[in-house]
From TrEMBL:
The keyword Cell membrane applies. Its main location: membrane. It comes from the Bacteria. It is a multi-pass membrane protein. It comes from Clostridium oceanicum. The chain crosses the membrane at residues 12-32, 76-100, 107-129, 189-214, 242-263. It is found in: Cell membrane. This is ABC transporter permease. Belongs to the binding-protein-dependent transport system permease family.
Length: 275
């Protein structure tokens, strides 16, 4: 494959560097921050950024920088875990639907249509209210409600490949359905799977931020970028204490934008036009 290096590649490399750096900072959070993210200091509330607290403190005196990097652990964990769940469900059901067709296809597509016809946040908030808001329920909610988009992409790819000559030849030499799917179909739809995975991570991080902002995601005192943003619901905080919400909002924007650039770069690199 010959691939001409473009200016856009620099952006993709920068995006990858940002994501790797943020993941590393989140993993090494105990060694980077000297403050417990949940430790209250009622004598030091709403302190502005200073040499002691580089991003200030919040309404109960917790160090905002510590909460920001520990919150990165939660938001990134939700993003990648929900993506894995989406891929597992979407690839399995999308492949079964596209390859076998018939009543199986109709049944799976009916389930997909039912899930997709309801407003995502209405259902997510309802389920979260029933199960209780915590990180593991949040991952399950995002994964279960988001797999239909992945399944539809996989189904469309399988439908376009299953009548190909090499699939017919595989059937003719006696390969069973599992072998055909594993060895011939899935390897040939790796490109859309990778691109879908990157976009799913970005979408899951945004969803976590939105649900935590509404109080139906990760609950305090556990920090996440979403529940840190919930401080902006207060007008006084918006106007006077910018350090409580701008850093978390900036991190969400940077991560989601970087992941989208990575997805675009992978899609362009794997495009047949570049072969």
């Amino acid at each position: 494959m010959r691939y001409k290096f473009k200016f856009k590649n620099i952006i993709v490399i920068l995006a990858v560097t940002i994501i790797i750096t943020l993941i590393s900072i989140s993993i090494l959070a105990p060694y980077i921050s000297r403050y417990n993210p949940n430790a209250n200091d009622l004598y030091n509330m709403y302190s502005p950024p200073s040499s002691e607290h580089i991003l200030g403190t919040d309404e109960v005196g917790r160090d905002v920088f510590s909460r920001l990097i520990y919150g990165g652990r939660v938001s990134l964990l939700v993003g990648f875990s929900a993506m894995i769940m989406q891929l597992i469900l979407g690839i399995i059901l999308g492949t079964i639907s596209g390859y076998f067709g018939g009543i199986v296809d109709k049944l799976i597509m009916m389930i997909i249509d039912i899930i997709m016809c309801f407003p995502f946040f209405v259902i997510a908030i309802t389920i979260s209210a029933i199960l209780g808001p915590n990180i593991w329920n949040l991952i399950a909610i995002i994964g279960i409600l988001s797999w239909p988009q992945v399944a539809r992409i996989i189904r469309a790819e399988i439908l376009s490949l299953k009548e190909s000559d090499y699939i017919m030849a595989a059937k003719a030499i006696g390969l069973n359905n599992i072998e055909i799917i594993k060895n011939h179909l899935l390897p040939n739809i790796l490109s859309p799977i990778i691109v879908t995975a990157t976009l799913a991570v970005a979408q899951a991080i945004l969803t976590e931020a939105a649900l935590s902002f509404l109080g139906m995601g990760v609950r305090p005192p556990m920090p996440s970028w979403g529940n840190m943003l919930s401080a902006s619901q207060n007008v006084t905080t918006l106007q006077r204490y910018w350090w409580l919400w701008i850093p978390a909002g900036a991190m969400v924007i940077v991560v989601v934008t970087s992941i989208n650039f990575i997805g675009d770069g992978i899609r362009e690199y794997l495009s047949p036009k570049n072969k």
